[in-house]
From TrEMBL:
Organism: Peredibacter starrii
Protein name: Ergothioneine biosynthesis protein EgtB
Residue ranges constituting the DinB-like domain according to the UniProt record: 20-154
Keywords annotated in UniProt: Iron, Oxidoreductase
Gene (name only): egtB
GO biological processes: ergothioneine biosynthetic process
Domain Sulfatase-modifying factor enzyme-like: 193-328, 351-426
PANTHER family the record matches: HERCYNINE OXYGENASE, SULFATASE MODIFYING FACTOR 1, 2
The keyword Signal is annotated on this UniProt entry: no
Superkingdom of this protein's organism: Bacteria
InterPro entries: CTDL_fold, DinB-like, DinB/YfiT-like, EgtB, Sulfatase_Mod_Factor_Kinase, SUMF_dom, SUMF_sf
Pfam families named among the record's database cross-references: DinB_2 (PF12867), FGE-sulfatase (PF03781)
């Protein structure tokens, strides 16, 4: 029996190492369309160069896995600790985010060598650990894999933003055709008043981020959620009705940001005479009116909801609704990289899993009995629980294997380079 349990543990370890290797390769595959010059640029304070993403995810495994296995571990290169730490103040100084675009050195080739070396070393070291030592580092290794998948999405977000600022508007990948799709009728589905279980039990054996725990009761007032995401066509009506010029629709902070940034449409939209175009990872394309609107800020989502006489759902209402919908739509593995129009393959809520991250009106705060990650990872989520709002549902560039219905994404309300969209809610009397 002891031998059987040992074999089972080894099989679990081998499967984890294989998944680690596959996720590392998937990140590198996302970089295959890039030229050497593409790796080093960063055009805004929010974005990072692709080269930095490759290095930072490697730094994560070096610092939180290899150093945990061997406290005497010698770093691959000492200066990498400063250059590729993201925000872990407890680990020492780090390069400010706005300076990541100055890193012409180390070269792309050196970063790729760094990745290969650390990937190989992690696989070798984990496979030769004792069972007890593997138990100690298993949580950090799993978090590192999930962290890398988060950066796969960030990588594509940043590539898209970088390419958009290039006057020739290069394509990351060939465009994909889809449709035509028939128009759909929006339906409103009721959520009954009552207590709902929200989040993840702290004793689960499945992975979840610390911000998804603990499972707790949340009161839901009776309300309705829309069956469909807001489309480009609907948002275009908001624009044509003067939505960006009506201060009565906007939060005060949102109005100030809109005026300062001169917003008049979602990010990546451009008007050419009577026609609207949108920049995608496949280049400039005619605006697909049937597709979900994407790249809107929380402020724009709130203004649109007010214009429609609706509101945004809370993250708790959203989770209750999402648990009732089995269908999924577009994720990263589908290879389209942009949200597609809704298809008639859902039961209640179209595209609630995948396609676009959906803004909620919920502030990003800890759940009851929240406990932050240990093992030097206390800064992973807790320090960001202020002045941000929760988004739910995943997007067309979220890895499907990384997604869960309880997943809580979060951004500042002015941000819109992430794949963020809108699902509306209404109160019931």
């Amino acid at each position: 029996m002891d031998l059987l349990r040992s074999q089972e543990r080894f099989s679990e370890r081998e499967a984890m190492v294989r998944r680690f290797e596959a996720v590392r390769k998937a990140t590198e595959d996302l970089c295959l369309p890039l030229t050497h010059e593409d790796f080093v640029i960063s055009v805004t304070d929010d974005t990072s160069p692709p080269k930095w993403h490759l290095a930072h995810t490697t730094w994560f495994f070096e610092n939180f896995v290899l150093k945990k296995i061997d406290p005497q571990y010698e770093p691959f290169r000492n200066e990498f600790h400063f250059l590729f730490n993201s925000y872990y103040k407890s680990l020492g100084y780090y390069l400010p985010k706005v300076k990541r675009g100055v890193l012409s050195r180390p070269t792309v080739h050196e970063v790729q060598e760094y990745r290969r070396a650390i990937t190989k070393e992690v696989m070798m070291e984990v496979m030769r650990l004792s069972d007890e030592k593997f138990k100690e580092i298993k949580e950090c290794l799993e978090l590192g894999i999930q962290h890398e998948q988060q950066h796969q999405e960030l990588l594509l977000m940043d590539i898209k933003r970088n390419f958009y600022e290039n006057p020739i508007r290069p394509r990351y990948h060939p465009d994909h055709s889809h449709g035509p799709y028939e128009s759909f009728d929006v339906k409103w589905h009721n959520l009954a008043s009552g207590l709902a279980k929200i989040g993840v039990d702290r004793n689960t054996h499945e992975f979840a981020f610390d911000n998804e725990k603990d499972l707790h009761n949340q009161w839901i007032e009776s309300c309705m959620l829309s069956s469909h995401l807001v489309t480009n066509d609907e948002f275009l009506s908001f624009i044509e009705d003067g939505g960006y010029d009506n201060p009565l629709l906007w939060l005060s902070d949102g109005w100030d940001v809109k005026e300062r940034e001169k917003w008049s449409a979602p990010l990546y939209w451009e008007r050419d005479g009577q026609n609207w175009w949108s920049f995608t990872l496949g280049g400039m394309m005619p605006l697909d009116l049937a597709a979900p609107v994407v790249h809107v800020s929380f402020y724009e989502a709130m203004a649109f909801a007010h214009w429609k006489g609706c509101r945004l759902p809370t993250e708790f209402e959203w989770e209750v609704a999402a648990r009732s919908e089995p269908s999924e739509c577009t994720f990263l593995e589908d290879g389209y990289f942009e949200p597609e129009p809704s298809r008639d393959d859902h039961e209640l809520y179209s595209q609630i899993h995948g396609s676009v991250w959906e803004w909620t009106q919920s502030a990003y705060l800890p759940y009851p009995r929240y406990e932050k990650f240990q093992h030097g990872l206390a800064e992973y989520n807790e320090k960001f629980m202020c002045n941000q709002f929760v988004l739910r549902g995943g997007s067309s560039i979220t890895p499907r294997s990384h997604y869960r219905v309880t997943y809580r994404n979060f951004y500042y309300p002015h941000m819109r380079w992430q794949y963020s969209g809108i699902r509306l809610a209404k109160d019931l009397a």
